[in-house]
Amino acid sequence: MWLTDAQKIGVGLTSFGVFFMFLGVMLFFDGGLLALGNILFVTGLTLIIGPTKTFYFFARKQKLRGTLCFFGGILLVFFKWPVIGILVEFFGFLNLFGDFFPVILTFLRQLPVVGTFLSLPYVRPVVDRLVGVRQPSIV
């Protein structure tokens, strides 16, 4: 998989955005770190998939509730309501990106150590249920 220079920068910005949001939550919902993380995450996502595809991703009718919650949560963080903003933003994130969780789980199961752990007999059904992977029915 070849990435353009803009996409490489986007991956870096998105990674730093996730890191700053995590750090902001760990430091008791520090509004500055959360706001910086949100800006970096959205900017990085735009650079990775492009401005037009980003707009169409967030503007789809099926994703409207997730989009409103995600950006509403970002606005709440900007308006100094970080705890409520992160909760609303997390709900919107799940609505927007929840379809990708089975793909991410499949990728993680192919990694050496993580994949072995996720495929353990007692871990596999729990993770499948959390992610929403459908089990094949045995007839």
Number of helices: 8
Look at the helices and sheets and give the structural class.
Answer: mainly alpha
List low-pLDDT spans: none
Radius of gyration, in Å, reads 17 Å
What string, H for helix and E for strand, traces the elements in order? HHHHHHHH
Distance between the termini: 39 Å
User: What share of the residues does DSSP label as strand, in percent?
Assistant: under 5%
Helix content: over 70%
**Biggest sheet details:** none
Mean pLDDT: 92
Overall morphology: globular
Give me the count of strands: 0
Subcellular location: Golgi apparatus membrane
Membrane topology: Multi-pass membrane protein
Family: Belongs to the GOT1 family.
Keywords: Golgi apparatus, Membrane, Transmembrane, Transmembrane helix
Give a quick summary of the entry.
By secondary structure, this protein is mostly helical. It has helices at residues 5-26, 31-49, 51-59, 64-78, 82-97, 101-109, 112-118, 124-131.
What would you say this structure looks like, in words?
With 139 residues, this protein is mainly α. It has a domain of 94 residues. Helix content is 76%, strand content 0%. The protein is built from eight helices and no strands. The longest helix is centred in the N-terminal third of the chain and has 22 residues. The N and C termini lie far apart (39 Å).
